[in-house]
Prior knowledge:
The chain is of the alpha+beta class. It has one domain: Pnp Oxidase, Chain A, CATH 2.30.110. The chain has helices at residues 12-21, 58-62, 99-108, and strands at residues 5-9, 24-31, 34-45, 48-53, 68-78, 83-95, 119-124, 127-135. A 6-stranded antiparallel beta barrel has the order 2-3-4-7-6-5. Strand 5 (68-78) and strand 6 (83-95) form a beta hairpin. It is elongated.
Amino acid sequence: MAPFRRLAELTRQECLELLGSVSYGRVVFTSHALPAIRPVNHLLLGEKIIIRTTVGAAVASAVDGSGTVVAYEADLIDAEQRLGWSVVVIGRANRVLSAAQIARYREVLIPWTDADTDEVITIAADVVTGYRMISATAGEPGTSFPEVPAI
Length: 151
């Protein structure tokens, strides 16, 4: 039987520290009235997530300048050990319009692809939640997970 695990809720500060410790995540937005998710690399500055994208990309099109509400998720989970964490941020996304700021972010946030990522988007960390999956002793509250048969 696999070791028991339990979820421990993280504080806002812990969530932001963990988010800042990784360089990638997933932005969740609405495209053509449907949910869409894109993996992106990010930079965390204070309580703002900075991402770059290509002009005309679905996420760039969704951010219309009115503070479009999006979600951002990042995690680091060890599937073998069944340990790790996940952080979700819900906030308002806006395009960066200042040429000086865009140039600065282009220097420090290097895209993972060869696409021309001229759009810079900030996501405010309005609502921040997260959980850490940690070892637990059998019988503790919240540790009663059914055994999943191997395939």
